[in-house]
Predict the 3D structure of the following.
Amino acid sequence: MFKSSLQRHARLGNLARRQLSTLVSQQIRSRPVVASCQRLAQSERQVVPLRQIALRLYSQQSATAYSSTQTDDSPASIYNVTRFEDLTKLGVDERIIRAITVDMKYDTMTEVQSLTINPALKGVDLVAQAKTGTGKTLGFLVPVFQRLIAADPSLASPQHRMRASSGDIRAIILSPTRELAEQIGVEARKLARHTGIVVQTAVGGTRKREAMQKMRREGCDVLVATPGRLHDIMTDPSTGVAAPKIQSFVLDEADRMLDVGFADAIRDIIDLLPPIKEVDRQTLLYSATIPRDVVHLAKSMVKTDNFDFVQTINPDETPTHARVPQHLVATKGFENWFPVLMELAEQAIQRSKQDPDAPPFKAIVFFSNTATVQFANRVFKSTSLGNRMNGVPIFDIHSKLSQDARTRNADAFRRARTGILISSDVTARGMDFPNVSHVFQLGLPPDRDQYIHRVGRTGRAGKSGEGWLILTEDEIREARYRLPGLPIKPNNTVKSATHVVGQGTPSPEVAKYFDEISQAYERAPRDLFAAVYSAMLGQKFGRNLNAEDVVRLLNEWCLNALGWEQQPALSPTQARNRGLDRVPGIRIGFDTYERQSDDRRGGGFDRRGGGFDRRGGGFGRNDNFNPGPKYGSRDRRGNDPFSRRITSDFESRGRQPARASF
């Protein structure tokens, strides 16, 4: 019965789409789509007004055109709300609207906000495909806050703060990373300013006891959390955290949560909440992509007989990774990476000074492990690039920094007009840093999707940007295999890329970069590079890059560029577990480097570069929680109407081209 009902309403939705497309074909042809599946009462199933279904296929332009055919009291006129002050028409509390229009000074909704706020305010569950940096945070906070106030009007009054309790949480918002959760928390507190709603955050990397004391002291109505930390506190009776009357559950960046393996944590958290049959709640699930595992997750969370699917990504829109110029620089070895980066950064800085039309140099440099981020941060802060007088501020973000430091560094880079953020993949998705002019990726990206997410940090909001992929010549074949069909073009103009350290004399303009980096290597503690050596041997090699190649490249970097007498050692256990114990060039043994590095050092300028060093930012894995395997299993029958509805509009867009372009 359930299956046939879904199939029937899917057919009705498709019929409505064709009818509405005929009516306003020019307006809706390339616009985002909203599709719904509501279970009608038995008495209503015989006659389904086509107009009601068509209106669920919402877009700003089609709604405007279609509303002209309706009376003022029709639902179409309500869906035409695209300004925040007009949310009063939908019954949104004036305190919420005042926070948005007066405090935040927002007037017009972004397309994503309009497409998601309108249907979510009706109370149905929502599955939305939305990119980051489009205002979706406010898109789910507004309906969540309004739902809480509608269910308990006392929450609208600031006096409620005196009665808030951590044992009566009304809304939970899950985010994949600590930094994203903190960002959402900041926005939520701004929105709650004139109400009595108390917002708290619970993330890994912070002291649990202090956070719980604060929550018990101040109470909590809306909890923004990472999955691991939320699971931890909800399964610990001593925390006193509970949600017996929960009204809203939000899952932000669902695809990313599944990518990092939080499926089991999410499932356990849902099991800890009151059953929907006993305590009704609204579920809002947002995801930049909708792969199969997200579909399975959505099926387990939303009311499949009463939900809206919102696609806010225009199928005809050119994605960032197809629009941003992308360059490939092939180097002789790992030892060329840092000089190449210095050369490209210096050129961009000079261009921004000389050309008034050129954007300020603001770059994110991606590495695939924390150890290389730490090492690169220390090295570049010791060069002219990190000099306070002539260089730019340099920040690093990685998992070995405190939460306060991560937040401070991320905020500082976000505010900076110019600067460099050296980061692991934790900033590749979800983080919105404005005006990033360059994205540099040093070394092989883990896969095609991660490459695309990294490049997507630049060229945002219609602005220009550049992507640079810096690889050794030995890595090119593997890159072709991992990165098919991307508009990456070889760039042979970077002079530092072709110099072989120890062979011949480079030109003066190239020598200066290698000399600076060499001097910076001498100032870097040895334990930092030893960690890089171990981390890079722990990454996946690939079918076209073997362990022998990586060991040789690392040894040449260590012996020729850093000037070490011998390469770092791997312990017998490490070498054996990684299958490296018989690889030529591996030194098995034990090293005792004096630990001089400070893992907490962060952003700004370094004293060695003529400025200052703050203990600052970064963030990495979300929690100290082992999340387990990915969620769900594939539907082998392939005839699930829920899955077909969600994937049909854009499933084909995810197919990867067969060959690389470089």
